[in-house]
Amino acid sequence: MSRSRKLRDMATGLGLCLPFLALYTVFTIWPVIQGLYVSLHKWSLMGKVKFVGLDNYTKFLSDQKFVDALEHTIIFVILSVPFLVIMALILALFANRPVKIRRGLRVAYYLPSIISVSVASFIAKYMFAPYMGFVNGVLHLTGILGPGSEIQWLIDTNHAWAVVTMMTVWWTVGFSMLLYLSALQDISPEIYEAAEIDGAAKWQQLFSIVLPLLKPTTYLIVMLQIIASFKVFGQIQLITAGGPAGSTKPLIQYIYETGFTKNNMGYAAAMSYVLFAILVICTLIQKAVQRKGEREDEA
């Protein structure tokens, strides 16, 4: 291929990429740079007030509300991530079985993922409502709750966390289920046949073949869910509004209130970059654990 042909092909490729690069720069790269600039200033909704340097980045160290919001976010991560990973694996195993209704199962498992956070949150809120809610109604019918007894799901902190966690898993498990399902379908049937010839039972195949082969997918799902759980906001805002008494308020909600309610955009931007740093650290730790596991498997 001649040099002029190569240059022409490069120019064509660059021309095709330019629209995307322009939009990506305007809507992603520039806001990141602008946010960093805002975080170095005292900044209100009306604009820049004054330069404060790193004061916004040191302020959160003595901000108890920031510490509480970060603690609530970590609680949600600990509650939701293992539950979601396990449920996604179980649903994928069911959806991968050679039965006539497996297409229907896949659709049913993924369907909640297509609804908006507002719809999913209001469904959960009314499902767990006292007196007329579906969950309390079932508990009354089964005799677990006596006449006149009601569980106030959104008033007690532990119950509120349970509601938010279950709603989040129900709403988002479909995507992780599809990742597991795709990985399951990549496992060669010959491996199962060889295991059956060797006399391996179904549960032995699961723990000795399936789960080890699903490790890369599990690492991916765990990383994605940790990032998503640290960014939780919509469902908590709509279901509990951070209550009761601020006991479920996550970090994103505190950042939102600081910027748009308290009119302190500089401090809110700084906390956003602190959250970004936390996510980067979590991702690096997860990747290190993954590489260590892969080396042990190869040894």
TrEMBL record:
Family annotation (Pfam families): BPD_transp_1
Entry-linked CDD domains: TM_PBP2
Highest taxon of source: Bacteria
Residues spanning the membrane: 12-33, 74-95, 107-128, 160-181, 265-285
ABC transmembrane type-1 domain span: 70-286
PROSITE patterns for this protein: ABC_TM1
Membrane topology: Multi-pass membrane protein
Keywords: Cell membrane, Membrane, Sugar transport, Transmembrane, Transmembrane helix, Transport
Entry GO CC: plasma membrane
Keyword Transport: yes
Matching Gene3D superfamilies: MetI-like
Gene Ontology biological process terms, A to Z: transmembrane transport
SUPFAM superfamilies linked to this entry: MetI-like (SSF161098)
Main subcellular location: membrane
Protein family according to the UniProt entry: Belongs to the binding-protein-dependent transport system permease family.
UniProt-recorded name of the protein: Multiple sugar transport system permease protein
